Amino acid sequence: MSESPAPLPPPRSPRLSVWTWAAIVLLAAFLLQGLGQAQVTPQRLGTGLTNLGQFLGQAFPPDFSRIGPLAIAMHETLLMAFVGVGLGVILSLPVAVLSARNTSPHPVVRTASRLIIAVFRTIPDLVWAMVFLVAVGFGPLAGILAIVADTMGFCARFFSERIEEIRPGPAEALASTGAGRTGIICGAIIPEAFPSFVATSLYAVEKSVRAAVVLGLVGAGGIGVELRSAMNLFQYPQALTIILLILIVVIGCEQASSFLRKRLI
Q1: Can you tell me the mean pLDDT for 72-86?
Q2: Number of structural domains in the chain
Q3: Is 172 domain-assigned?
Q4: Domain presence at residue 198
């Protein structure tokens, strides 16, 4: 008669290391400190809900009397986003090629390119907008330049990572025929990474449409300027109209982006 298999030992519960417990305690301390500095209390939250209800009561029904100028401002916001993303994507591609491990001509060039990407990614778009407002003044140009900088930080990193993930086979096949570095990049690497580039660019469009609205709040043109003026003048029905317009346009851009990704990728 065959022997029955030995019973399996009971599973051990995972034990957290000292460093893990220290990280948990540190995060909890930061959370409590942040709640204390923000003065998050039930009384303030209750007052905030009451004020929000009063705002919604004063904002309804929305005021559509200036829908024409608001549509023009929304169109300006979309142009800011699309122009900024277009220029940002074009400028991101050579930076990504120079920063990728398998396409960079030299480690120094790669390090410098990665540093540039890190700078563009680290500085928020609102800070870029304030810098460009000082440089070129108020208006859509400052917003476009801020979106270009933000898009370069976003796209260049993902472009470079995708380039590094490409299979070496097509590039080696072109190299065996005598193709140079530029020919290998244009003939093998970029075509294979192109679907990923398109997906990342479409995500950048979605991101930049929302950013263009916020940039207008600091004077970079577009619908954000109208929203700031309406809120400052306590024209809440008009502000609600602007918010609804932004909501419709942003959702429409996200749906169009998803549709294009499914058709092109």
Answers
A1: 90
A2: 1
A3: yes
A4: yes
CA 148 from centre of chain: 12
Query: Domain range spanning residue 182?
Result: 69-264
Place of tokens 């304030």: 130
Task: Taking residues 80-102, report their average pLDDT.
Answer: 89
CATH number, domain with residue 90:
1.10.3720.10
The 10s digit of each residue's pLDDT in 170-229 is 666 767 776 666 777 777 777 887 888 888 888 888 888 888 888 888 877 788 888 888
Non-local CB neighbours of 182 within 8 Å, separated by 6+ positions: none
Ramachandran region, residue 234 (left: φ > 0; alpha: ψ -120 to 50; beta: rest): left
